[in-house]
Amino acid sequence: MRELLARPLLVVTGKGGVGKSTVAAALGLAAARRGLRAVSRALAGSGAPSTFVERSVADGLSHISIDPESALEEYLRDQLPRGVAEVIGGSRTFSYLAAATPGLRELLTIGKVWELAQPDRRTPGAAPYDVVVLDAPATGHGVAILGAPRTFAEAARVGPVARQGRTIHEMLSDPARTGIVAVTTPEEMPVNEALELPARLEEAVGRGLSAVVVNGMLPRRFTGPEVERLQAAGPSTPVHAALADAARARSQRGECE
């Protein structure tokens, strides 16, 4: 855990429904309890307010929810004169830009995450964080977000988009600066998706995973001889419950081996 939290950026992904948001929150809390200044960052859903307000959720831990439209507005304000930025940053204009430029939403999303993880943030008056935890989307979209900077850098080749794409990609592809955590449950489909993730990351980002979290794993309460003694004890509700628990724990480990 200490080695994982030494990275300024942690990205948590996995199949939908496996508890990755819970793991992301736990990592943020773990960082805060170690005296680090941390922020957990989630992607705003459809209809969520467009805001970059960072609110405190615990001592040393803040939370921020950002949508791509807000990320575009901030980026344009930073790069263009105010009037031009306001015109281009209109919601309808953004929809046209996003439709005409596949991957733009993903690039803007990870660009804001990268900004949060910088020691010298471009947001006026913003203090740096020790650890930024991204609660990324499910595996497929999560990989697309991580691969967007490299894609845009290779497509643009020169100019500010190419430069920023390369800069962001350098951080994401560096295991010492960015940790990528896969979350799964001990079930066939989530485990298979987690097993496929390293190859997808290698193709999109040029690197693999930093850690895997198996969520919902039952503890192994009984040894083999203890299970045999329970089976020989005769039928009863407590014995039946204990044997069922042992069988489920054994089945879960079988899925992960």
Task: Give a short summary of the structure.
The protein has about 260 residues and is of the alpha/beta class. It has 2 domains: about 1-215, P-loop containing nucleotide triphosphate hydrolases (Rossmann fold, 3-Layer(aba) Sandwich); about 220-255, no CATH class.
CATH level-1 class of the largest domain: Alpha Beta
Indicate the CATH architecture of the largest domain.
3-Layer(aba) Sandwich
Helix content: 40-55%
**Helical run tally:** 11
Instruction: State the end-to-end CA separation.
Output: 22 Å
Count of all domains: 2
Order of helices and strands: HEHEEEHHHHEHHEHEHH
- CATH superfamily name of the largest domain? P-loop containing nucleotide triphosphate hydrolases
Description:
The chain folds into two domains: 2-216, Rossmann fold (3-Layer(aba) Sandwich); 221-257, no CATH class. It contains eleven helices and seven strands. Mean pLDDT is 84; it is low at 46-50. With 257 residues, it is α/β, with parallel strands linked by helices. It has helices at 2-5, 20-33, 68-79, 82-88, 91-100, 104-116, 139-156, 160-172, 188-204, 224-232, 237-256; strands at 9-14, 38-43, 55-58, 61-66, 131-135, 178-184, 211-214. α3 (68-79) packs antiparallel against α4, α3 crosses α6 and α6 (104-116) packs across α7 (139-156). α9 links the parallel β6 (178-184) and β7. The protein has a seven-stranded mixed beta sheet with strand order 3-4-2-5-1-6-7, with helices on both faces.
